[in-house]
Amino acid sequence: MTAQPDTEAQATPDKPELTRRRLLGTAGAAGAAGLALGAAGATGVYAAVAGPDSGSSPALSTVGSTEVVFHGKHQAGITTPLQSRGHLIAFDLAPGAGRKEAAALLRRWSATAAELMAGRAPAADTGVALDAGPSSLTVTFGFGPTFFDRTGLTARRPVELDPLPPFSSDALDPKRSEGDLWVQIGADDALVAFHALRALQKDAGSAARVRWQMNGFNRSPGATAGPMTARNLMGQVDGTNNPKPSEPDFDRRIFVPAGGAQPWMAGGSYAVVRRIRMLLDDWEQLPLKKQEQVIGRRKADGAPLTGGTETTDLDLDKFGPDGKLVIPDNAHARISAPEQNGGAAMLRRPFSFHDGIAADGTPDAGLLFICWQADPLRGFVPVQRKLDRGDALSPFIRHESSGLFAVPGGPDRGEYVGQRLLES
């Protein structure tokens, strides 16, 4: 996303920035984005001190003041750094609703998302997030395969949305899978994230109804001494060797290029969404050494069992004194490594979840797995097929829901998400 500095949104010693409270009282006086970064996150910084009723109100923290730009080449929430709170929600268009109603809905949703991501409250606001900054809020919209049938656009459904193949580890609940429309919400404040969820649900009105909804979380910014890869609920460092925007082939792997069979998808990506329950009671009974052999990495720092640091390449040919491979042949890290899958790569951007304790006393907890790629048949599918055949981690996880969504490129200013599909 192109950097768009806005000097009016930056604080100076004699010009304090505006809080959400002042924004609410000045009809959006600080509506423009802050200092935008590049593809690694497209985040901008704005907001800080005095509220309308006091000259001594404390400044927003860095967490609260960070803004992500809504408009641009790609939608936000794909390369944006992991947020501490997330909501995933799928909608089905209401009976009788078609292309016209879908376009009106995406227009409403886009307008609301742009306001919320800038730290402003929409009309008829609930007040849930008053006094908070934008807190890295992102809202991302996608279309499921059935959306194209419902809107009479079957001819424009990408082949990349063909159904995922079945996997032996699947125990999928159809009521919590797929959907006509998918929305991903992320923020670094729980109230800001819920505020967006509630606003978008209300915006749906009679045009669409909720099919399923899931809540997730990650570690809060600033909780560790320095930036580090997130951990999942098994305690493992999760996300090592993710593709990086600085890599020369990143865009080719993650985003759909211009000039393809479906021009409206240029700059977009495909999201595979899976609710993966972790059988934590079973996992936690394993000794540390066995856990590390299952994963192929040290639990303490995420480094390969073959040595080095988290970012050290796996030495897949290294044998130990016992004559066995140091990284076992069924270790998760070995099987999922790009070099073991013809270079297949996907950008993993998950949230953890915990939905309470089941009747048998086990935690209903795990990973809301979200991965991004230019083509699921070259990203997710080959890796999952290989994991399905012999991953040592498989006995400790259960895939309980699944969805595949086409996420179009970001809208230009004056556009809404999906306009190039719905109005072309």
Q: Your description of this structure?
A:
- Mean pLDDT is 87; it is low at 1-57.
- The chain has eleven helices and eleven strands.
- α3 packs antiparallel against α5.
- The protein starts with 19 loop residues before the first helix and ends with a helix.
- A hairpin with a 5-residue loop joins β9 (351-357) and β10 (363-373).
- The protein is 21% helix and 19% strand.
- It is of the alpha+beta class.
Q: What is the residue-averaged pLDDT?
A: 87
* Strand/helix succession: HEHEEHEHEHEHEHHHEEEHEH
* Low-pLDDT segments: 1-57
Major sheet size, sense and barrel closure: 5 strands, antiparallel
What is the strand and helix layout of this fold?
Layout: H1 20-25, E1 43-45, H2 62-65, E2 66-68, E3 85-93, H3 99-117, E4 138-143, H4 145-150, E5 181-187, H5 190-204, E6 208-217, H6 250-254, E7 269-278, H7 280-284, H8 288-295, H9 332-336, E8 347-348, E9 351-357, E10 363-373, H10 380-390, E11 397-407, H11 419-422
Antiparallel strand pairs: 1-2, 3-5, 3-6, 4-5, 7-10, 7-11, 8-10, 9-10
Helix pairs in contact: 3-5
